Amino acid sequence: MKHPLTGILPVAPTPFHADGRVDEEGMRRVLDCMIDQGVDAICILANYSEQFLLSDDERALLMRLSLEHVAGRVPVIVTISHFHTGIVVERARAAQAMGASMVMMMPPYHGVGLVPGELGIWEHFAAVSDAISIPIMVQDAPLSGVTLSVPLLVRMAREIENVSYFKMETPFAADKLAALIAAGGADIVGPFDGEEAVTLLADLDAGATGTMTSALQPEMIRPIVTRYRSGDIDGALAQWKLCLPLINHENRQCGLRAAKTVMKAGGVIGSDAVRHPLQPMSERTHTRLLQLAGELDLIALRWGK
């Protein structure tokens, strides 16, 4: 990439047929829809892609399919998280060889009780950096149960060549982003937030330059970032207020199911199935989701009609 990524880098959902099989054509349609939503990049194989429910073969299939289908239209970020450093390195090399613009990874963890110390975490990311030449985004999320201190993150940014982007999803993310940017300076190339942009205004106030949301409403959330970064703070706030009911409903009630449900309703994909043991959302949650999405006239809700 010639210039640092900013803006909105949403996570692509993984569509499944009703019987649970990966929907390959649906995946292509998801990617096309996201590009039509005006995204700045696409992230695949993330937690909101149900990566933890995919086999290794399915994961490899989806990576190749996605990178070949996007074909450079927007940058693609490939999530490569795994506890074993050797597997993460292999995934990173494969992603770069297929044309990924960036990889994203969580620190190694296996439940809350099996986490390496800071040296092991540092070595985990350093091994990946040594194997590739594209940027690495560190995903700092409560899901891992791993505490990534600001001093550790700054050291990684300064000493590990390709670690330069950070997705901050911890409680009080804005405070951590501000501390990271203040301590890391120019080494913090891409400070991003996540969690469906539920704290986006506070995170932009703290210095975030973009957000990694789901694929539900990128065309509505991106202007929050672009207006803020252009100096139109009032316009960014007004746009965030417009989006906030749906942001909150997705974040607190729907989770990763939201984007697929709206995409099914909009004809992007044929099924919004999630893999067991995940369960479909309740009818009341489904009804409210489509109501809020309809009020915003989302692209995903009408893309395939």
From TrEMBL:
SUPFAM superfamilies membership: Aldolase (SSF51569)
Keywords associated with the record: Lyase
Pfam families: DHDPS
Coiled-coil intervals: none
Sequence similarity: Belongs to the DapA family.
Protein name per UniProt: Dihydrodipicolinate synthase family protein
Organism: Pararhodobacter zhoushanensis
